Every structure is written in structure tokens, then in C-alpha cells.
């Protein structure tokens, strides 16, 4: 059975599309999508030998070789331009996801949707999407086995970016998530606030000018996030 985390990603993959899951590990997501007849064809990309072998094994044991191509390579290197409609990249840090997209930009021709699931650092993805002209269209936050995950969906169609007044705060928290403010969102940012307050305490005693500036920035961030949680 697919995890809630990957099921949330799966729900945003277009019907009948060709999808590529980059960093697929066991290829659970492509196998699920093909078995459910949700996609026409899937590509599972892996850079590391161990996970690549796991993906091959999973696809063979489900007898899905004609519907899923397992490929070894770094990031988007495994696909050709105009081959995939939807790309999913899940279970990594936001910065790694961003660098995979940045390094593979030429392969994004023809891609209509990106479904990205960062474990941390979603803000770096939101910034990259704006820079590259992708419109953030949906966000989800969920908790599974004690961990909190975010899912970001971006479409190539021209549309209105969801950002409004305080863009830097929206990049950090997620423009849709901060509006919706569900209990998982509140739990995540309460946890972050606790961490930041601990760091503040540690910095409190220092007078170095360097730290003064960082303290100011952190204080400002703490205050604006507290404001969002309160309102
Ligand atoms: N996507 C699966 C999931 O969400 O359950 C697996 C996540 S696993 C934590 C991350 C996977 O990404 C690993 O199997 C790793 O080998 C792969 N990976 C890391 N960097 C990669 C890259 N540049 N290109 C392709 N795969 C990569």
C-alpha cells in the first residue's frame, strides 16, 4: 500500500499522462500509478545503484516492464525533452530538488506539471519556480509516522502567482498553506519557532556585530511567523 505521502503526490499526476519519477528508489509511485491505470507510461529514474536495482526488481516482480522504464542516471538526464508530461521528485531536501530541476532545465520542454515533495527547505523550490516562470497551483501539508511533509504542485500554464504582499513570508510558509492554516501547518511552524527561540537564546549573550545582524533577522522571522499563527 502506498504511503499517504506518496498518495498525496499521486493525486496530482494527470490521468493518461506520461510521468517521470526522479529519485524513485523502489519505484513505488510509478508502480502504483500504472497499476491504477492512472498514467499511460512511467519512467523511474535513479542515480544510485542500490535504489536503481530496487526499482528494477519492483517493476519486474509486478510484471510492469512494458509500462515502466527504469533508467539509471543523474536527475533529469534520464529523460528526453518532450517525453514526460508530469515530473515528480519526492523525499529529498528542497535544495537537492531545486538543483535537479536547475541542472535539467533543458529536459523540461513539454513538461506541464511538476509535483515536488521536499522534506525540508520548500522555500528554495518556491523561489526557483518563480524564477523559471512556473505557477504554484496547489500545496499540501501532511503528517505521517510522526513526520511532516509538504507537497508543491506547479504548472507551466500562464496563471496568476499566488503571492501577495509579504512575499518572503509566503515563500517560507507557502502562500496556500498559510491561508489554509490547518493543524499540521500550525504544528510544523510551532516546532520551528521553538528551534528558533533556542537559537535566539544561544545568540543572546554574544555581542559580535556579525551575530547582531543574524539576531535581528531571526527575531523578525520569529515575530512574523508568530503573527501568522496567532491571527
Ligand atoms: N522518491 C522516493 C520516495 O519519496 O519515497 C525515494 C526517496 S529517497 C529518500 C531519495 C532517492 O533519491 C534515493 O533513492 C537517491 O538515490 C535518489 N537521488 C538522490 N539524488 C538523485 C539525483 N540527482 N538523481 C536521481 N536520483 C537521486
Outline the fold blueprint.
Elements: H1 4-10, E1 17-22, H2 28-35, E2 39-46, H3 49-61, E3 68-72, E4 86-92, H4 94-103, E5 113-118, H5 122-131, E6 135-144, E7 147-155, H6 167-173, H7 175-180, H8 183-204, H9 209-230
Parallel strand pairs: 1-2, 1-4, 2-3, 4-5
Antiparallel strand pairs: 5-7, 6-7
The chain binds S-adenosylmethionine.
> Which structural class fits the helix and strand makeup?
alpha/beta
Bound molecules: S-adenosylmethionine
What is the assigned CATH homologous superfamily of the largest domain? Vaccinia Virus protein VP39
The CATH topology annotation of the largest domain reads as Rossmann fold
Average pLDDT across residues? 95
Helix content: 40-55%
The proportion of residues in beta strands is 15-25%
Domain unit count = 2
Order of helices and strands: HEHEHEEHEHEEHHHH
Integer-rounded radius of gyration:
19 Å
3D structure, described in words:
InterPro entries: SAM-dependent_MTases_sf, TrmK. This is tRNA (Adenine(22)-N(1))-methyltransferase TrmK. It comes from Fictibacillus terranigra. The chain folds into 2 domains: 4-161, Rossmann fold (3-Layer(aba) Sandwich), CATH 3.40.50.150; 184-230. The chain is 45% helix and 22% strand. The protein is built from 9 helices and 7 strands. It has helices spanning 4-10, 28-35, 49-61, 94-103, 122-131, 167-173, 175-180, 183-204, 209-230; strands at 17-22, 39-46, 68-72, 86-92, 113-118, 135-144, 147-155. A 7-stranded mixed sheet has the order 3-2-1-4-5-7-6, with helices on both faces. Helix 4 links the parallel strand 4 (86-92) and strand 5. The protein is elongated and about 65 Å long. The relative contact order is 0.11. The mean pLDDT is 95. The site of S-adenosylmethionine has 16 residues, from strand 2, strand 4 and helix 4.
